[in-house]
Specification:
CATH class: Alpha Beta
Oligomer: single chain
Number of strands: 6
Largest sheet: 6 strands, antiparallel
Shape: flat
Protein name: Molybdenum cofactor biosynthesis protein MoeC
CATH superfamily: Hotdog Thioesterase
Strand content: 25-35%
Distance between the termini: 39 Å
Organism: Geomonas silvestris
InterPro entries: HotDog_dom_sf (IPR029069), MC_hydratase (IPR048274), MCH/BMMD (IPR052342)
Number of domains: 1
GO molecular function: lyase activity
CATH topology: Thiol Ester Dehydrase, Chain A
Order of helices and strands: EEHHHEEEE
Helix content: 10-25%
Length: about 180
């Protein structure tokens, strides 16, 4: 049996300016997602959790909490952008050009804008990306720049790669 290592994400050396990474997973936003996230973060704007109130707005239905949109799109990008992150340095230029609604499916992609060596840590590089989140019809609902520190190859913390202990086969007692 040959063990094949799974995707470990990109390291600093793997990023090139201009590269675009379409992130592999989409996520349909449910009413429960929107209400729980809104209330968990103590956002009291009823447009996110009160359907009767929201029906009276120009949208006619609840808007997805914008910080949920930011969190989901950031999460979607992890497999391609920050699987090997040392630290996030910031989100800049966050824009929300169109609304996202319950029932919409959110997709995203990121473009590498710049990369440079860290001046203070030889095992780290700094990468800036522009991430775009869009719904199922291609309408952009969020864009932002994100700057992060990413480990160089061979300098990341090691993840335990344990091998399972296979149980001994159960031998039934002999019929007597």
């Amino acid at each position: 049996m040959t063990i094949k290592e799974g995707w470990r994400g990109r390291f600093f050396e793997d990023f090139q300016e201009g590269d675009v990474y379409p992130h592999p997973l989409g996520r349909t936003i449910t009413t429960t997602d929107n209400i729980w996230f809104t209330l968990l973060t103590q956002n009291t704007a009823p447009i996110h959790f009160d359907h009767h109130y929201s029906a009276q707005t120009e949208f006619g239905k609840p808007l997805v909490d914008s910080t949920l949109t930011l969190a989901l799109v950031t999460g979607q990008s992890v497999t391609d952008i920050s699987q090997n992150v040392f630290a996030n340095l910031g989100w800049d230029e966050v824009t929300l050009p169109n609304p996202l609604f319950e029932g919409d499916t959110l997709y995203s992609q990121s473009e590498v804008l710049s990369k440079r060596e860290s001046k203070s840590r030889s095992n780290i590089g700094i990468v800036t990306v522009r991430t775009t989140g869009f719904k199922q019809d291609g309408t952009v609902v969020i864009t932002f720049k994100r700057t992060l520190m990413v480990y160089k190859k061979g300098h990341e913390p090691k993840i335990a790669r344990l091998q399972p202990k296979m149980p001994e086969p159960i031998v039934p007692p002999e019929a007597g």
